[in-house]
């Protein structure tokens, strides 16, 4: 099995900006305990604190300098908060990285506000979730000495993050401090996931022998597949079958056939994994060109997720291939 190597920078190097200075962080949270936790964890990561205050600071008074990493905690998103998030999303578009934690009830509104900055959105996160998000933010800065990642490497890294997240959750449950999660090391190696996300016509892709462009099957067929997949959880631990990318693709394929729009909250539920995990996969699949977001023309506060035409064609080819293989067995 091929291995993927990701050079590891020390914590101080990760938290240093292009000029060698520590990255600055701005924290906006109304819950004092959450605000203190985020502050402690960013300091443990070697970052410099620029501002730490309530969410109201985002829309009170004149605009102020913000850090290279901005964390906002808004479990309830009223009109002023959403307006402030929209402005912040535009402001950090290329100059900073935004991490927003919210609730499942406010997710659709928050997601719609964050359409420019490639923000990380966390849903009802634990402390470990925030630490993992902070680590992902650090890797986005140019001085981390990470080589340009291929499509396969990005999926590998995403899966590694999920595995580290599970470990961090367990450490949280056992009362292990954040220092253990931010421990230093020299390198890590993980097995490549193969060509799960291979582009059409690329490695691992085969053309249909007939040369005829296939069409998607009846939506009832796909809904039946989804129901059968969910039925497994009645007899086995659902974690055994977690495959969010495929569940997302199946749900959106059925929705495309039915001409139904899918909200990000609905898609998170369909993925079968926690919303924060689902959002990471949705973001990765958007970057991979499999999904795209559609703004609601009637309500700019809402956004929907859909398959790209390329992904729909790939799904059609998959079902055509499965149909041909099944026919050979009968």
TrEMBL record:
What InterPro entries does the record tag this protein with?
Tscrpt_reg_MarR-type_CS, WH-like_DNA-bd_sf, WH_DNA-bd_sf
Per UniProt, the keywords (alphabetical) are: DNA-binding
Note the superkingdom of the native organism.
Bacteria
Gene Ontology MF term list:
DNA binding
Q: What is this protein called?
A: Winged helix DNA-binding protein
Species of the source: Croceibacterium selenioxidans
Q: What is the lineage of its organism?
A: Bacteria, Pseudomonadati, Pseudomonadota, Alphaproteobacteria, Sphingomonadales
